[in-house]
């Protein structure tokens, strides 16, 4: 699990101002990381149009559809924190975490992220984090 998220795939201050812009932003990070093809980003939009990826506690986890599995080159996670809340279908979001998982490898990552975001004090620490290393440490995805 130690290679799915690196500090260069964490953005402390995203530029998006809407849900769709945020999906495009985190998707572009996954493409830049060499984890997915641009078609995977299209599948992230398709997934969002069929079911919201809002998870609660200021978190959304956009990801592709089952049909887009072939567009995943390697498992990876990209994290974007926003200075202001984005409207995610009527819900406030400050963290957008894009996930691409080869096979079922993303399930462990999803579980780890869910645990962190179920703890409001951890969410507060993520909001206050001053470095990508700090975000990585709080998410707990920096250890195998």
Name its key features:
144 residues; alpha/beta; Mannitol-specific EII, Chain A; 5-stranded mixed beta sheet; 5 helices; 5 strands; globular
Describe this structure in words.
The protein is an alpha/beta fold and 144 residues long. It has one domain (7-130): Mannitol-specific EII, Chain A (3-Layer(aba) Sandwich), CATH 3.40.930. The chain has five helices and five strands, in the order βααββββααα. Helix 1 (19-32) runs antiparallel to helix 2. The mean pLDDT is 92.
Task: Give a topology summary.
Blueprint lengths: L9 E2 L7 H14 L5 H13 L3 E3 L2 E2 L15 E13 L2 E10 L4 H13 L2 H9 L3 H8 L5
Helix pairs in contact: 1-2
Mean pLDDT equals 92
Counted by DSSP, the helix tally is 5
Please give the domain count: 1
Shape descriptor: globular
Query: Between the first and last Cα atoms, what is the distance in angstroms?
Result: 5 Å
Task: Summarize this structure briefly.
The protein has 144 residues and is of the alpha/beta class. It has helices at 19-32, 38-50, 105-117, 120-128, 132-139, and strands spanning 10-11, 54-56, 59-60, 76-88, 91-100. A 5-stranded mixed sheet has the order 1-4-5-3-2.
